[in-house]
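Z., the sequence and structure:
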Amino acid sequence: MDLFGINGSEFIVLAVLAVVILGPEKLPEYAKKLANLVKEVRRMANGAKEQLRDEVGDEVADIDWRKLDPRQYDPRRIIKEALVDEFDDAINAAKSAPNVAAAPVRTAIATETQKQPPLAANEAAPFDSEAT
């Protein structure tokens, strides 16, 4: 039993302290008040749950809340799953494609890039007032 971070032996110590501090006369009264408080909190929690279900609808029941738990976030697993999915999609696409010889992939390579001449010693660098 681990209620509010209190184990069994700590609970017994607290019960003995309550008997000593409150006395046997007032203890049943405070126990009844505590029981009523717990019942009221449960009633309020159930009411809030029902109200949320009524307002949001049945979509909430279908949500897998464990997937949305931030403690479950593992970037390595997410990347691995994404790569495996893409790999499987590529394999399925290759299997479903007709047998055609693959064409060589050609990429355009610039033969000559435009080079600007270096600035003179006292020349100001170009400035575009609309770019900032």
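The helical segments are 8-56, 59-62, 75-96. The chain has a mean pLDDT of 79.

Let me know what you think.
H.
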